[in-house]
Amino acid sequence: MVTINDLSTGDYVPDWCPGCGNYSILNGLKRAIVKLKLKPRDVLVVSGIGCSSKLPQWIDVNGYHGVHGRGLPVGTGAKLANKNLHVIVVGGDGDVYGEGMNHFIHALRKNVNITLLVHDNQIYGLTKGQTSPTSMKGDKSTTSRRGNFDDPINPIALAVAQRTSYVARTFAGDLEHMTDTIADAIAFKGFAFINILQPCVSFNKHNTFVWFKERVYDLQKKGYKPNNVEKAFKKAYEGWDSGWDKIPLGVFYKEKKPLFEDDHPVLAKTPLVKQSIDNISIKKLLDELC
What we know:
By secondary structure, the chain is an alpha/beta fold. It is built from eleven helices and eight strands. It starts with 20 loop residues before the first helix and ends with a helix.
């Protein structure tokens, strides 16, 4: 049976800032893998660029550290090639909602069976504290000395509007809730998206662990059912429209949908990794291009 220690990289340890929420997310992901009894060889963690995107280096499973904003296309390709892999894409709010926003939007609608974990610290942490797509309006940063002029991206609302098959939010300051949410998302058959509130202790002095703990609450403990688009959309804006007095955590929306890989005629019978190339004629392909 796999244990937390089996997923450790030994003496090679993270170099995140002391107190960073990424440590908790790494721990939560490990715990989720153990909870689901997944074999490390069957798990692939893909990332882009940023503090959060260093995560594949510090968990002993298959890993791919790519370029800025491109974690989702790589993860999608890996899943389509080998649908037996549990593909988990990780990235930050800048990586996914900034450089990678185009990939994010299209991933929401395709419903490839992968899991997306977004470490949302509302700042560009790796490059020293610039305003990100989820930075609050009015917040000051190294690139917004007079305060951020723009309204923040609402990733939960975007996902719900697209009727994404699994939409959730959790908080790095609540390890139990985060572990359970990540495990539930990985086990879900369909595109599963979790926005993780992850305070940056070095550059974001507003959205701290204490600030979030005073505001977050568990949707499911309040009896909320994630099966209604209109209710989910309304919940997605809770906080945005009420001065951030309450921030809901949990699963906002869940819907079983046909998988992209099951509907595609080339992929339906067997994944690409198991398809024979013996009958493929390179000459025929070249002739068709000429």
